[in-house]
Amino acid sequence: MGNDEMSSLVDTSDEWIRQRSGIQRRHIASEAETTSVLGAEAARQALKAAGLAPDDIDLIVCATSTPDLTFPATATQIQMALGMSHGAAFDVQAVCSGFVFALATADKFLISGSHRSALVIGSETFSRILDWTDRATCVLFGDGAAAVVITAEPGAGTIADRGVLHTHIRSDGRHRDKLYVDGGPGSNGKVGHLRMEGREVFKHAVVNLADTVEHTLAATGLKGSDIDWFVPHQANKRIIDATAHKLGVPESRVVYTVQDHGNTSAASIPLALATAVGDGRIQRGQLVLVEGMGGGFTWGSALIRW
Ligand code: UT7
User: Fold this and answer.
1) Domains in the chain, number
2) How confident is the model at residue 166 (pLDDT cuts 50, 70, 90)?
């Protein structure tokens, strides 16, 4: 759905949306394409790319804030769609930081030795929780899904190892009213709509994202200039640019997909990873830094050697 179509729904323009957010288009799932349907397709593609079958996976962690149903977890519906009845599947809810939280969770399960191979999925149908009369929010979000596979392998325990090298996650519940959905099973029994104080979220995003990335870099002894690819959550091109600038990462090493997807919440980082792996930018052995910030507030980052 292009920006021009948006201007037929609310008082907005292609120029405003591009200038303020960098978004040019977003994708809207059809009625039959629920979060688990999108997530299962992403999972199949990730398994294919990894050369693995569902039998090789023993953990599914799905990051989503738009589950098909309040319960069961979307991850269990994806598990069923993949024909799996073994292993464990559950959801992680950290809104736009969901993928980083899900990756951190799966990584710790693998490190503990309890599980061997995990599908980490970000899948969202935010079009279902948008107020399509609120121009301040409806132009910004879209639907999508993407997934990665991580597998436990012995390593040297240094940053030369491949895989997830470090994760850092944070939250601060005091900021609930700046970004939330005004409905839920435990309050008014409604699905609700996304509400956001955009300017406030923007201000916190730049500070919090730089902070979590600096934390991850310090923990691994690296500098912004050591990173091959910076793959941030895709909410707003201006937030991405400001964060990259603060960290000293040049634009040529930043992956942008916000122009094509809008903000797909938990799906945005893995969609950007899939794009940059698919077009050959991210190569085996390179250092990839991901970060995200969302409702809660929640925020976090992860360093991966691809
Ligand atoms: O994923 C994590 C969650 N989300 C984010 O990270 C989003 C963070 N925030 C943002 O990306 C930006 O704050 C926005 C893109 C939401 C807004 O950009 P902004 O530069 O902060 O604009 P603003 O909210 O200060 O609004 C500027 C003007 C206002 O008009 P006045 O008061 O200056 O007359 C708004 O009413 O733009 C108006 N406006 C619009 N105009 C045309 C707000 N939405 C629209 C619109 N089209 N869609």
Assistant:
1) 2
2) very high
